[in-house]
Amino acid sequence: MIIHSSPKRSVRILILGGRGVGKTSLILSLVSEEFLEDVPPKAEEITIPAEITPELVPTNIVDYSALELSEDQLQDELHRAHVVCLVYSVIDEDSLAAITNYWIPLIRGTLPLVKMPIVLVGNKADLINYSTTDAALNIMSTYPEVESFIECSAKTLHNISEMFYYAQKAVLHPMAPIYMPEKQDLTDECKEALARIFKICDLDNNGVLDDHELNVFQCRCFESPLRPEALNDVKAILGKNIKGGLNEDDFITLKGFQFLHCLFMQRGRSHTVWAVLRKFGYTNDLHLSKDILYPCLNVPVGCSVELTHKGQQFLSNLFDKYDRDNDAALSPAELNSLLSVCPEPPWTGELRNMVCTNQQGWLNQHGWLCYWTLTTMFDVETTLEYLAYFGYLYHHDRETQLTAVQVTREKKLDLLKKQSTRNVYVCHVIGAKSAGKTELCRSHIGVTSAENGTNPHLAQAEPQYTINTVQVYGQEKFLILKDIDITNVREPLSPSDVNCDVACLVYDVSNSRSFEYIAKVYLKYFVGSHVPVMIVSNKSDLTAVSQDYICQPNLFCDNNRLPQPHDFSSRKGSQKELFIKLATMAAFPRFHAAWVLFFRKTRDLYNFNIMQTDLYSWKAGIGVALITLVGVLVLRLLKPDKSIVR
């Protein structure tokens, strides 16, 4: 069943009831603030400006007359209305019986998929000295769409304003989604929403709201703290009315938190409950508002999105909050607790295939931040959505989760300046299926070749992405490896396959036909492009064979002014130097001097490439020659001139 989503920008009230119950008199008494003896059969539609309504929302009031409106026109008005005031005369039992015999069935039949809120109005209360409350309460318990009941008098103006306030409240703060009057209890959906709110407000994740946390909640929702005496009154009510509402330290439990909101509903304060729910982004269907989940973010072509320091700090604090045993990793129970504020986990499959984990395969803080960095790069909407679920807006009052992300400058500016200001780079790993790309990608997150064969979780999955951090000239950067799936070497690569910050072309040194594929890929897609390219000779622990290609890899790299192939093997332990090189090339596109500087620095450690070694030898030879020449000149100057001696 559909419920009107809210908050509404306006309220449209339809007044229904039998002839002679005083519908038109109620409207005219509200407008003129006096009772008119002579009234027309039907009042014209009235618009009340927002500034003079209790809820500061413009309100339209529509009268109904069977003499002037056809059945089709009535159905049309029902479809346009946000709330219906069903009026009966307290001195006419037939008009009261018609509420359940005619009017409510008519509304249900006209709007079978919509739960239209109804306010039951007993008019002409000035003519009796008793009340019809019991009969009205019976109707409310039978028909849950009846939100409230009020007796009033158009003649004495008694409760006239209150009647229309209740109608507004039924639209803006509806009872049906959050409360079941027949059971005197909150709905399951409302309890679930309040449980999420409670967890977000439980800043230390100890299962209770202490006095500080309760005051933070009060200030966030109602912009004023609880007075000490008011706080004591709240605790006294909980201690008296519900077992388990307070813990042994007199702090409020989830059970007590939900009971307080149920008590608000029982006392007719639905607006208080809705103030809390709306502060946390809920609409009338008790789902988070799409405006909250997906704030508008413009990402121009050529730009990317990264987490800001504020976003990283929030996610780090969130991790620490749920790491109850302080072991720097989230156990399955701790991770489930963290994700309990979300409708479902943001990922599918095993995270250990994508980011760094501990030895048990549990997510550590580094892996947690890496995951959200990866998600922000490729699916920023999911990041924004889950930041809302996690309570980012509660912890950053008057800010949206847009402050947790930033849009980088256009890539063409990076190319122009030969240096990138970004912190996250994407490397596409391309090669034939047998080249060992997957093992290379997994080694980026510390998974060894031995683990690839023995870990059943890893053996079953071939992750498209892995992400880890590397150091580039002393600065921490995130490097994402994307394993480009090559199903058929004859099929062309798509534009998205070659659109990256740096390309890693991988071949198997033990397979004579492996290099040919990546050589053709380079010549077809990367010659003349702005994408830096690194060729990797994988499985270097095996015996290298001559490649069946017009030239060997070393000569190919020389001919195309590429760095010499990097020898790599996932069986040789740590191979971080490859990933540092890739990140360096991505950080300084088209600035080969920066690569050379780095490669010189790491030459002795990593035995980088023959070309750079030759460059060093050449420079050393020039240096020796210069020193020799200077020495000869000095000796000649110091040698005595024989002609002078004579």
Verbal overview:
There is one protein chain. The chain has 646 residues and is an alpha/beta fold. The protein has 28 helices and 20 strands. The strands form six sheets. It has a six-stranded mixed β-sheet, sandwiched between helices. The chain has a six-stranded mixed β-sheet with strand order 16-17-15-18-19-20. Strands 7-8 form a two-stranded antiparallel ribbon. β5, α4 and β6 form a beta-alpha-beta unit. α14 crosses α15. The termini are far apart.
Tell me the distance between the termini.
Answer: 124 Å
User: What is the residue-mean pLDDT, rounded to a whole number?
Assistant: 87
What's the number of extended β-strand segments? Answer: 20
Radius of gyration: 37 Å
Helix content: 40-55%
How many helices? The count is 28
Quick recap:
Helices cover 44% and strands 14% of the residues.
Any descriptors?
646 residues, alpha/beta, six-stranded mixed beta sheet, elongated
Q: How is the secondary structure organized here?
A:
Elements: E1 11-17, H1 23-32, E2 46-48, E3 59-62, H2 71-80, E4 83-89, H3 93-110, E5 118-123, H4 133-142, E6 146-151, H5 160-172, E7 179-180, E8 185-186, H6 188-201, E9 208-209, H7 211-222, H8 228-241, E10 252-253, H9 254-266, H10 270-279, H11 290-293, E11 305-307, H12 309-322, E12 329-330, H13 332-339, E13 363-364, H14 365-378, H15 380-390, H16 392-395, E14 405-407, H17 411-417, E15 424-430, H18 437-443, H19 449-454, H20 456-460, E16 465-472, E17 475-483, H21 495-498, E18 502-508, H22 514-526, E19 533-538, H23 553-559, E20 566-568, H24 576-587, H25 592-601, H26 603-606, H27 610-638, H28 642-645
Parallel strand pairs: 1-3, 1-4, 4-5, 5-6, 15-17, 15-18, 18-19, 19-20
Antiparallel strand pairs: 2-3, 7-8, 9-10, 11-14, 12-13, 16-17
Helix pairs in contact: 14-15
